[in-house]
Design brief:
Layout lengths: L2 H14 L2 H11 L7 H14 L7 E5 L2 H10 L8 H31 L2 H22 L8 H11 L8 H6 L8 H9 L3 E3 L3 E5 L4 E2 L15 E2 L5 E2 L1 E2 L2 E2 L2 H6 L5 H6 L3 H11 L1 H8 L2 E6 L2 E6 L7 E7 L11 E6 L6 H8 L14
Parallel strand pairs: 1-3
Antiparallel strand pairs: 2-3, 4-5, 5-6, 7-8, 9-10, 10-11, 11-12
Helix pairs in contact: 1-5, 3-9, 4-6, 4-7
Length: about 350
């Protein structure tokens, strides 16, 4: 083929990546509510057949990835994992086929037009779910224990169902080698294929994200599954469930007493900076290019002195986070306070780039 013919072929394939398909998989990645178990189970069996394997003898359902990991650990007669044959091999073949057909530049353009736009937010959600499952199931275990290692490996062995949407959006899935995998993705959550048993998860019952796609909910779980497994977050930052329950009852004294700077920032965002300053009786002390110094005088206690700083690095949504740094009561300038947090003298503190 000539260079012109190759370019035209690339354009044809990229333009053939249906926006309807991408929208469908975007919706699948964010889908909540009961799985279509019959359709998902048929997809599982089809995926086994397409991999040249016997269908699983049993399909077991779990209410969440947490419950699924527990089931996998307890199923002594499940047989060996067949994920490689069911998911990895057909996946790699389809990617290689398209890469060969389109070339490196064509494949990059095709990925950008299909799964690329779904990848970052979906992968962040997958990573957060894995971390949440691991945190709950290894509670009380020592770091690096055999149980922790086992759970990590099980989590990595999952086929991601609806959260494989970025990749499924990039490949043909109707009447092709990925048809079974796509059927599960359209109708259920994560799943684990073994020689004799497949373990399949329900989808979430709740999912709350901010405009940047980060988990975010100040009134309850940001992600919840029907068995009670849930993740709590504020603008992408994991927070404890009881912490969120406390937010509606916040008073300035509670905010000042919080030692965790990130949690204190969440409290301030929820409470409102202007309201906090007004309710605390704070007075402006000093302002310079590093930030603003505020002082709150307390009866029968040392004063609270804080530097208000604006993070120069924007958030994914383009906004800039405001941080409040508690500094020693004797601090007289904003620069002195910020320098103190770095263990520096104010004359030495001169960052080339603030982060």
């Amino acid at each position: 083929m000539t260079t012109t013919e190759i370019s035209e072929a690339v354009v044809a394939v990229v333009e053939g990546a249906s926006s309807d398909d991408v929208r469908e998989w975007r919706a699948c990645a964010a889908a909540i509510g009961p799985a279509d178990r019959a359709a998902a189970e048929e997809g599982v069996r089809r995926a086994y057949r397409q991999a040249g394997l016997a269908e699983p003898e049993l399909v077991v359902w779990a209410g969440s990835p947490r419950e699924a990991v527990t089931l996998v650990r307890d199923l002594a007669d499940r047989g060996a994992s067949v994920r490689e044959a069911v998911r990895s091999v057909p996946w790699a073949r389809e990617r290689q086929r398209l890469h060969t057909e389109l070339g490196p530049a064509g494949w990059a353009a095709h990925w950008a037009a299909t799964g690329g736009g779904l990848w970052e937010s979906t992968q962040a959600l997958v990573d957060r779910i894995r971390a949440g499952v691991l945190e709950e199931l290894v509670a009380g275990e020592r770091s690096g224990s055999a149980a922790e290692t086992e759970i990590r490996l099980i989590l990595l062995d999952a086929v991601l169902g609806q959260h494989d949407a970025p990749w499924l959006a990039a490949f043909p899935t109707d009447r092709g080698p990925l048809e079974g995998l796509a059927a599960v993705g359209r109708n259920a959550g994560w799943w684990w294929p073994f020689a004799r048993v497949a373990v399949v998860c329900e989808r979430p019952v709740a999912l709350h994200r901010d405009e940047a796609g980060r988990l975010d909910n100040g009134d309850g779980p940001a992600l919840a599954y029907p068995d009670g497994f849930a993740l709590h977050a504020w603008r992408g930052m994991p927070v404890p469930a009881d912490f969120l329950a406390e937010l509606p009852t916040l008073v300035p004294e509670r905010i000042r007493s919080e030692e965790n700077a990130e949690l204190r920032r969440v409290m301030l965002e929820y409470y409102g900076y202007d309201r906090y300053l007004a309710d605390s009786g704070a007075r402006h002390v000093h302002r310079d290019e590093t930030g603003t110094l505020w002082r709150i005088d307390l009866a029968d206690d040392e004063p609270v002195v804080m530097v208000e700083v604006l993070n120069s690095t924007p958030e994914p949504d383009g906004t800039h986070r405001t941080y409040w740094l508690r500094v020693p009561p004797a601090t007289r300038t904003a620069r002195e306070g910020v320098a103190w947090t770095f263990g520096l003298h104010p004359d030495v503190y001169a960052p080339v780039r603030e982060t």
